[in-house]
Design brief:
With 170 residues, the chain is of the alpha+beta class. The chain contains three helices and 14 strands. The chain has two domains: 84 residues, 2-Layer Sandwich (Alpha-Beta Plaits); 64 residues, Roll (SH3 type barrels).
Length: 170
């Protein structure tokens, strides 16, 4: 049973070591999550769909302080992601949202944008009900930006206008 001292952390890995580290940490009976996405790669002589980590160089691990030492000693680990000197803890609902996107329930685009303008909204229906974000107007309609500060990334998620409400109304 996982106690309250177990939290989701983000491990920063050496380049192209995400899958290796995922396997090694899993063998230590430590829960991991490596979001994988399929991408079409085109070369001059062929096309191929390959599986790539959604977040290059990142692996999510659910660990205690005691297991931290086991993980950090692995040769594929550069370090744990920190925010203001403290280990960044990723909330369960953020991982849930990432899983929903990968399962194909949401159209998404990974971005490092940090928009300065837009309306803050709450999602009132659909797979992301309960989440908040910022709307960006674009030719494809509004996009809900969900910022994941722990790993310095944002998501642009295509969402139906009827699924959101202005945060000030609630």
């Amino acid at each position: 049973m996982i106690g309250k001292d177990y939290k989701w952390y983000v491990v920063y890995t050496r380049s192209q070591h995400e899958k290796r580290l995922n396997e090694a940490v899993s063998k230590l009976n430590i829960e991991t999550y490596l979001p994988i996405t399929k991408t079409l790669r085109i070369w001059s002589d062929r096309k191929k769909v390959i599986e790539m980590p959604l977040f290059p160089n990142y692996l999510f691990v659910r660990a205690s302080c005691k297991e931290y030492v086991k993980i950090i000693e692995h040769h594929s680990v550069i370090g744990f992601v920190k925010n203001s000197g403290e280990l960044s803890v990723v909330p369960e609902n953020v991982l849930f949202m990432i899983k929903k996107m990968i399962e194909g329930q949401l159209e998404y685009q990974l971005t490092t944008l940090n928009p300065s303008k837009g309306t803050f909204v709450n999602v009132i229906s659909g797979p992301l009900v309960g989440f908040s974000g910022k709307v960006i107007q674009s030719s494809g309609g509004p996009y809900l930006t969900i910022e994941i500060l722990q790993i310095n990334r944002s998501f642009l998620v295509k969402i139906d206008r009827n699924s959101i409400t202005d945060r000030r109304i609630n």
